[in-house]
Structure formats: C-alpha cells, structure tokens
Amino acid sequence: MTFSAVNTIWVLLGAALVFFMQAGFAMCEAGFTRAKNTGNILMKNLMDFCIGTPLYWLFGFGIMFGAGTAAFGWIDPFIMKDYAHALPAGVPIWAFAIFQTVFCATSATIVSGAMAERTKFSAYCVYSAAISLFIYPVSGHWIWGGGWLAEMGFHDFAGSTAVHMVGGVCALIGAKMLGPRIGKYGKDGKPRAILGHNLSIAALGVFILWFCWFGFNGASTVGMDSDELIGSASLVFFNTNLAAAVATLVTMLFTWLRYGKPDVSMTFNASLAGLVGITAGCDAVNPFGAAIIGLCCGFAVVLSVEFFDKVVKIDDPVGAISVHGVCGALGTLLTGLFATGVSTMKGVFYGGGFKFFGVQLLGVVSTIAWTAAIIAVVFSIIKATIGLRAEAADEVMGLDRSEHGLHTAYAGFTIMGDSVAEDVEAAEPVVVTEEEAPARPAKEKAPDAPIYTNVRIICRPASLEPLKRRLNKIGITGMTVTNVMGYGAQKGKPEYYRGTPVDVTLLPKVQVDIVVSKVPVRLVIEAAKSVLHTGHIGDGKIFVSDIENVVRVRTGEEGYDALQSDELL
What we know:
Blueprint: H1 5-32, H2 38-65, H3 93-114, H4 121-143, H5 148-152, H6 160-178, H7 199-218, H8 227-259, H9 264-278, H10 287-311, H11 320-338, H12 355-384, H13 392-397, H14 399-404, E1 452-459, H15 464-473, E2 480-486, E3 496-497, E4 500-501, E5 507-516, H16 521-532, E6 541-547
Antiparallel strand pairs: 1-5, 1-6, 2-5, 3-4
Helix pairs in contact: 1-2, 1-3, 1-7, 2-3, 2-4, 3-4, 3-6, 4-12, 6-11, 6-12, 7-8, 7-9, 8-9, 8-10, 9-10, 9-11, 10-11, 11-12, 15-16
C-alpha cells in the first residue's frame, strides 16, 4: 500500500484534536459540579482514556473493523490481522487505529458527567472499560465497520449516533440506576438547583470542545489529497461552526424568554448540542440544513434538560443525556430530512422520499436498544458486586476526600459552600435558664467616659469600592473588610439555574467594620446610605453598637489614641 503524507498528517492531526477533547470534557464536568468533587471528575476523565486505549487495542478495534459478519467483526488482540478493506486511502493502520481510539474514548467519557458526584471510582473504571471493550465497538461495527447498518445506507459521518448517542444512552441508564444526588429533590418532589462551582472552567471546556470539534468532524474525511475531499472538509468545517452558533443563539433567546434572563450554563450546553447534532450529517447537508439542525438542537436541549430534571426526575448534573443522547439522535434523524444527496442518499426535503429517513430511524432505534440493554446488565452486575453508588456520608463529604484522600482540589483558594443543604439531622438547641446562667455584674460607666462606636455595614461586593471612596472623603482612614455569606428577610430575588428555581441559600456579601471616635456617627451612616441605596432588595444594612475600649497592640495605646494614625498624634 502506498501511503499519502497529506492524508496521514490530516488523520493524525484530527486524532490529536479529538484527544484534546478529553480536556474539554474534564473542564465542563468540573465546572458544572461542586468543588468537593473536582479531583474525582478530573481523575475519571484521565482514566477513562487510559483504560480505554489498551482495551481498544486488545479487542475493540478488531470487533469494530474486522471483516467478520454484518453484526460483529472479529477478535484480534493487538491488531495483528489485515485491515486493508477498512483503511482509508493512503493512511497507515496505526494512524487509523489511533484516530479510532480517541473516538472510542470520547464515547466513554460522556457518561462521567451524568453520573457525577455520587458514583464510586472503582465502579466508574469497570463500566468505562465495558464501553470501550465491546459496547461501543459492536454498534460501531454496524455503522462504520461495514456492518448491517452501513450496508443499508445508514449515514453517521462523524458519530452523532455511533459516539455521542451511545455515550448519552449509557449516561441515561446509569443516572437512572444511581438515583439523584442527595438534596437534589425536596420532600415535595420538586427539583432543587445545585449550582456548578466554576462557570469559568466550564466555559473554557466549551471553547476547547468547539475548537477540537473541527478535528472531530473535519478530519473524519480521513483524507485531503483530492479536490473532492478538500471541498468536503471545507463544507464540514463551515456546517459544524454554523450549527453550533445557531444552537447557542437560539438557546440564549429561548431561555431569556422562558426564565426572564438568559441562562448561562444552558447556553454553554447549547453550543455542544449544536455540535453533536450536526456531527452525523455535516458532510451531507448544505449550510441551510446545518442552520436548521442547530435551531432544532437549541430548542431541544432546553426542553430535554427540563424533562429529565422535572418530569422523569433523572439527575444529570451536566446535561450529558440531553446534549449527547437526545441531540445525537435528533441530528441523525434530521440528516434523513435535509441530506442533499451529495455524499449520501437524498433526504425527504430534497426528493429522496422516506426510505433514507427510515434507515436513519432504524439505526438510531437499534443502537439505543443494543446500548441500553448491555449497559443495564453491566450496571446491574457492578451494583450487585462492588457497588455502583458511593455511601451517603462520602457523597456529603465529597468524593475527592472519600475516594482519593484529596482534602481539596483548590488548596489556597476559598470556595463557596454547597448550594443545597444536605439532609443532616439538626442537633437539639441547648436552652440555658436564667437560674443556670452565670451572674454578670452590671457595668458602670463614668459619665465622662468616651464612646467608641462600631459601624458595621453589610452590602453587595460591587458596592465596596464606591463605599471606600466615600468614607475616605469624610475622614474614615481605617476599616476591616470581610467576605461573608448571608441573606435578609426577603431571601433574595428568585432566580433560575438550568431551568430550575434556585433555593435561597447564602448570597455573597461584604462586611465592612469601622470604629468611629472622631467623625460623627450620623455622618458615617448618611455617607454609606448615599452610596448603597438603589431602592432594590439587597442594598444592605448598617448596624451600630458601642465599644468599651480599643487597644493598639504595637504601642499599647488605648482609647482615642489607639484609633488615630501615627501621623496625627
């Protein structure tokens, strides 16, 4: 076989980009979950690739691309047999093998997010191995390895069904069998929003995935040595980007209308939903079809996340079921409607009738049936042996600590506490009667004793800088500022996270403590009010109390002198 340098470089570059998608998935999952599980999330995204790579080398590749039967390839440990029938033109076996390996790892890593924050690490390693070993390769043989679906004309260019929907179905079955996270649903059955701890990291993950998707879809042409392949790759790039952008825009507007404000995390999901949806037909549809696929995925991801969260009550922290499972199936079916006939059969809207659409539907349904049946058996075996779900106490503490002995993945940083109170039984309050309380003698204050006043201001973090400037103008030269958490009587304005109302917990505030001796207290209060007042809930409060004495540790000065700077004395 004569090798093509251009084709080989193209395939290897695509393999490198698809591998880097592991980083994108790791960032998304870590950002959408709580800080106490970050190390566990990162570890799982590393290990599913490292577990899947040797297993795919030993058995998966042979099962998927072996020239066996229409249903199954062959068992070929170490990829020793002849695969000339499956290799792209001019591409060496090992270049094609690594390209397919990273696709297999992508399917396995999708499951991690939906089952996050409550799955045993050992259980994760086992079911991740099962996906790479035989679940993904068997359905992959049907679609890409010359199996029965390929013979019928089923079209899934880069894996909306073969990769993403397989991962999404595994995620659905796993999340259902695990049950929701502690505190996800109240006693009334209504979902509670559990906020992700780091949307910056989640956004980075989305951008990484979007960038790498050009390799995921574009390099699936597995060649660039002809005008036809160059034209196809160019169309694939354009359609991939267009569908993602349209889906993102649609979800932003849809959530804006639905929740009153554009939902950030749901919009991040929409970018991935558009990418997943276009993956099946990015070579087979024109830009108009790509835009319609993106539009459909933009609506579908929102409605699907709400459906699984609120109706069937399957807890999916990152939306993997909706993004990969639902939009993977949707994109594959829409290819049967919008395919122009350039690289496959014509879709319904281009004069092809319903035959091609029927093949697409059959491929989706049969892949769902295979994946769901086998992964359910795998999960059941794991549940009956080593156990699938972490202990409740470990889940509350965080899997970083219980599974890996990692106290925190953010040493040196302050992380906000969980957004949902855990179901921990409150201790009985200790009541002290007046007879049991120690006697405290009444304090006598000399009539001419100076009064030092503590003014404590609780306000929004954004108000701190203007407050400091205003107080400096009236002569306040010292203050103590503390980041605190809390809420007032109104408990804040209702907001939504991923379509679920956010229960009032603790909101970030700033506490400013000032001890006043020279400046009139009323002047301090009025100055603070002039800066903080907006007329809306959350402007803050000012607490005023007397202080008996003040001591400067360095010099031993007390009272008024201790409150003055050295320059004024």
